[in-house]
Amino acid sequence: MICRLCGKDKKLVESHIIPKKFYTPLFVEKQSPRIISNKPGFYPKKSPSGIYDKIVCVECERIFSPWDDYAQKVLLTQNSKVEYLKYNDKKIAYIKTFDYARLKLFFISLLWRATVSTHYFFKRINVGPFEPQIKQMILDTNPGDPEEFAIAITKYDDPLGTITPDPYSYKWEGINYYHFYLAGFIAYIKADKRPVPSFMKELILCPEKPLIILIRDFRKSKDFKVIKKIVKKTIPKK
């Protein structure tokens, strides 16, 4: 089979699109998480090892590994180096130091993996003409400038926010973005040649600035309302 990254005819490996550790918070009392959907006729499916697909060879899979490991370390590891921004004594964001290239390449590769995957979970991700550009950035280990596939991150303040809906596309001020859910974090990835909307400029990943992650109220979010509706619809009543 043809590797989607190097283009060579090689044996493809089953690899996670979203790294496995981002599914860890979904395991409750050793019970596997389930994939649910509002798609008509969809029955909840157990997903004991996360979602994976055969898109690359083992050599190309190794390209992603350092970026995956770094993203998991930065986002999932709690440490004393975190600083919080507060407003009226309420935490509204936290700040971390980070390596721009490694974290940016993780999100770029995540977007690329999702767009070339044939797994139904990623059916709403399709970057179209941007795919060759993103692939070349991965091969060149080039994170691009902050505006190029700009990325901002938020985090829900509630453990229930670790529920992971399928990623989807959205327009902010007419500009195309893709939303990815990662263990309570939401990554907003721009796939558009136009500049970042003004309200997002201070939040995007930038090599000269620390990582700023906004804290959001999960129970007041649209996601909470949508997830409640899906769960009510798809989980059988006892």
Task: Spell out the key features of this protein.
globular, alpha+beta, 238 residues, 11 strands, 24% strand, 4 helices, two-stranded antiparallel sheet
The number of helical elements comes to 4
Radius of gyration: 18 Å
Distance between the ends: 45 Å
Helix content: 10-25%
What is the total number of structural domains?
A: 1
Low-confidence stretches: none
Shape by Cα distribution: globular
Q: On the 0-100 scale, what is the average pLDDT? A: 87
Largest sheet: 7 strands, mixed
Order of helices and strands: EEEEHEEHHEEEEEH
Classification by helices and strands: alpha+beta
Query: What proportion of the residues form beta strands (DSSP E)?
Result: 15-25%
Would you give an account of this structure?
- This protein has 238 residues and is an alpha+beta fold.
- The protein has one domain.
- The protein is built from four helices and eleven strands; from the N terminus they run ββββαββααβββββα.
- Strand 8 and strand 9 form a beta hairpin.
- The longest helix is centred in the N-terminal third of the chain and has 19 residues.
- The chain is globular, with a radius of gyration of 18 Å.
- It starts with 11 loop residues before the first strand and ends with a helix.
Describe the SSE topology.
Elements (H helix, E strand, L loop, with lengths): L11 E5 L17 E2 L9 E2 L5 E6 H19 L6 E5 L2 E7 L3 H17 L14 H9 L11 E6 L11 E5 L2 E8 L2 E6 L20 E6 L5 H13 L4
Write a brief caption for the model.
24% of the residues lie in helices and 24% in strands. The model has no long low-confidence stretch (mean pLDDT 87).
